[in-house]
Amino acid sequence: xxxxxxxxxxxxxxxxxxxxxxxxxxxxxxxxxxxxxxxxxxxxxxxxxxxxxxxxxxxxxxxxxxxxxxxxxxxxxxxxxxxxxxxxxxxxxxxxxxxxxxxxxxxxxxxxxxxxxxxxxxxxxxxxxxxxxxxxxxxxxxxxxxxxxxxxxxxxxxxxxxxxxxxxxxxxxxxxxxxxxxxxxxxxxxxxxxxxxxxxxxxxxxxxxxxxxxxxxxxxxxxxxxxxxxxxxxxxxxxxxxxxxxxxxxxxxxxxxxxxxxxxxxxxxxxxxxxxxxxxxxxxxxxxxxxxxxxxxxxxxxxxxxxxxxxxxxxxxxxxxxxxxxxxxxxxxxxxxxxxxxxxxxxxxxxxxxxxxxxxxxxxxxxxxxxxxxxxxxxxxxxxxxxxxxxxxxxxxxxxxxxxxxxxxxxxxxxxxxxxxxxxxxxxxxxxxxxxxxxxxxxxxxxxxxxxxxxxxxxxxxxxxxxxxxxxxxxxxxxxxxxxxxxxxxxxxxxxxxxxxxxxxxxxxxxxxxxxxxxxxxxxxxxxxxxxxxxxxxxxxxxxxxxxxxxxxxxxxxxxxxxxxxxxxxxxxxxxxxxxxxxxxxxxxxxxxxxxxxxxxxxxxxxxxxxxxxxxxxxxxxxxxxxxxxxxxxxxxxxxxxxxxxxxxxxxxxxxxxxxxxxxxxxxxxxxxxxxxxxxxxxxxxxxxxxxxxxxxxxxxxxxxxxxxxxxxxxxxx
Length: 718
Ligand SMILES: Nc1ncnc2c1ncn2[C@@H]1O[C@H](COP(=O)(O)OP(=O)(O)OP(=O)(O)O)[C@@H](O)[C@H]1O
What we know:
- The protein has 28 helices and 21 strands.
- It is an alpha/beta fold.
- The chain has 5 domains: 1-136, no CATH class; 170-251 and 508-571, Rossmann fold (3-Layer(aba) Sandwich), CATH 3.40.50; 266-433, no CATH class; 442-488; 579-711, P-loop containing nucleotide triphosphate hydrolases (Rossmann fold).
- It has a 6-stranded mixed β-sheet, with helices on both faces. Strands 9-8-12-13-7-14 form a 6-stranded parallel β-sheet. Strands 18-19-20-17-21 form a 5-stranded parallel β-sheet.
- Helix 11 (273-283) crosses helix 18 (422-433) and helix 24 runs antiparallel to helix 27.
- Mean pLDDT is 86; it is low at 462-493.
């Protein structure tokens, strides 16, 4: 113990010295004397990142030691530290480094050249003890379990924690899997799918930092509470250039305020809705029922149906998105109208051979038309400029428009009451409608070009290739700073994550999708667009699916994009739910998905779930008793139940979350509340890490009552 403590004290001294040095460099970069604004930004960001990396190691810097058979000793920790004075000898090995791997995977039977594994336990900066495993000897004890059990038994605090010290071998194999494409991590509740996916991101960033960091990583989760729950894991591993978003956030600036009826969600989630969107756009490209007369100074011109039809056909045939094709429509309509007008104005004195005079008259007419309100109104009516929001809101709130495109199920009175299933549709429409170009001022353009010139210079001098690999575009290939201006319009010091989150057209290098079983076909299209390199970690459990538009099988959603090129790995051990509670959940699972094997709990907690049957009038009192008694204990608690129980959270909002204690109210109504009631009940039953209580008035559902599981009946207090 004495020597381990002394070693770790030295490591912290080293860490502090390093931090002081980086802090100095950071301050220097902030002052940025003599450098350009761009150079300063780059330097400040680099030093800030290094400071963040060193900052994560304040607690539990070193958590393990590996002794190799050949006598080599490696200390394993949250970051790597080296002794510069001794030829960069590693003092501490980053947990992600290849040489750290046996710490997680070596076993008594397969020691991987190791003799001993020590797990160091610490409080703050102090080593409080260690457990040790002797590898490669039949009598070697498996002591790793002690650290794991301590970790999984510990009361939960605010959000998920990293598991670097106790990653299990089956998890490590997934974290380090060398598969650049789509990897599906499957497994029952509590098997660590989420936490493993996040550690995989940290691993990928460590291993391919240059390549990944430029375009960043996106983590998609089901709701803000879940993102909040998992939000600390990556920063605690020193990785903060990651964007977290719900599917509802994928169109920047949109606020989801409503929920769809299941029928509407199903229509919006399926790929058939693409036909609805195309038809809705076509429906807005109209022909005038009566000709429009536009009074110009010398002549009245007529915009009639045949003219509009020709222009509409040409515009459609151009293959351009709607808003961009408007220019084609406008050009043809204008051409026809001006030709007719010239014919009339020039009758008797102007011939086509007199090109100059003809063009002069045309120029006057063009100028006049461009300013004419009746002409503008006519064009706007026949080929309006459309934003995705406006198009969809107009469609949803008009029974006639919906009827015209065969999507009556989508009606809602407030067209703008956005739901999460509208997001992929809006995103699709951005491409189908195309851009409405807003003019940029000369001054803005000049400033952007100047900034880009600075970036270009740095790219060339420092040879930082900031471009995507796929672009095959090196800085030297770029001749004009103006070309770069488009990509570097941000003059501020926002990092990749911030810029990416605000930019709908940003493409990420890697995307993690959690609770992926809930995503519709349309959601997948949005995500695939965000990651052209198709590098995904997909996390899900088909048995927990509740969305009617969600995935029935992984192949059904993935084969369309990466046929035969996606890998899947399964996790089988439940680290969250103790066996006493899991038995109950497994009975429910057996009822609604008999083919699915429930995960096996890694521990039991010695406390059986309890139940209490009371009248509904007593629910409020019992719930407050539960919250009161839980507030006296360390850890977290929640009440889960149907939507009409005051103080209860509906099961779908607890997906991916966990609590020390759960009180489940009226499971019978959770089960029958909607078509996915059994999955909801399964989710609710698998949230507790220690204690589960059930409060009910109605008899327990057969799935629970009829199982072999005994549920202790709590003594009702008088
Ligand atoms: N190796 C480990 N060491 C310590 N704790 C672990 C380990 N693996 C998983 N856990 C813990 O188990 C709990 C469940 O993990 P996680 O939430 O990632 O599971 P999940 O499979 O995503 O569950 P769900 O499907 O219910 O969302 C978390 O508290 C996590 O920290």
